Amino acid sequence: MTDCTVPNSEKYQQIINAAVEEFQEKGFTAASMDRVSARAEVSKRTVYKYFESKEKLFQSIVGVLSDRFADMMDIRYEQGRPIRDQLVELAWVEGRLLMSPDVMAMARMVISEVLRNPVLAEKTQGKMDKTRVFADMLRVATADGQMNVPNPDDAGVEFVGLIKAKAFWPVIFGAPIITEKQMAQIVESSVDMMMSRYGIR
Fold first, then answer.
1. Comparing C-alpha atoms, which of 68, 47, 41, 38 is closest to residue 3?
2. Hey, is 176 helix, strand or coil?
3. For the chain, how many structural domains are there in total?
4. The HTH tetR-type domain covers which part of the protein (predicted)?
5. CATH number at residue 5
6. Are 96 and 37 in contact (CB under 8 A)?
7. What are 143-183's pLDDT values in tens digits?
8. Would you say the C-alpha torsion 74, 79, 80, 84 has a positive or negative sign?
């Protein structure tokens, strides 16, 4: 069976959570499927029922993390609605994910591995990057006359970067997860900067 078998089952999630802990503690190379099964409190046979290999297990974690960010793909520009309100809403979709302990645990583990493993980095590249959603909104808002963004792709990277600079990267390197109050300040500040640079006065 493949790593996609019954992805919503309780045991599947137990294995994913255990693997995140194992990869964080031991690293991908030294991680053991035996220890994953022990941490998950399931048999090794059950682990292999869902995941054919350690690499498949790792890629499944990347997939779970990517799916958590997939909600952002549903955010679309609404003509006639103030663009600032829409940017705030979009920023909060990202912000809520960055306030999630399990999301950040998976992100920390994945990033630590891809930084030291070029093969994993190549396979993972792009799966967690949802910058295009930000760029698309800026592009359509420009076409609709609410913003003036000469290069929406670059501006999308800037927008995401403003949020992640305070709410993502510090946490990856050990800082506490951002509180809702802190995130509200980050969202407002990031949107204000985008409106200051690209908004139509």
1. 47
2. coil
3. 2
4. 9-69
5. 1.10.10.60
6. no
7. 999 999 999 999 999 999 999 999 999 999 999 999 999 99
8. positive
The pTM is what?
Answer: 0.77
Do residues 181 and 122 share a domain? Answer: yes
Residue 175 is part of which domain span?
66-198
Burial of 117: CB neighbours in 10 Å, binned 0-12, 13-18, 19+ = middle
Q: Are residues 79 and 146 in the same domain?
A: yes
Query: Which tens digit of pLDDT belongs to each residue from 26-41?
Result: 878 888 999 999 999 9
Q: What is the pLDDT of residues 55-99, one digit of tens each?
A: 889 888 888 777 777 766 678 899 999 999 999 999 999 999 899
3-state secondary structure of 128: coil
Q: Report yes or no on 60 lying in a domain.
A: no
Cα three-residue angle 102-21-25, rounded to 5 degrees? 130
Q: Name residue 151's amino acid.
A: N
Q: Are residues 192 and 119 in the same domain?
A: yes
Strand partners, 199: 147
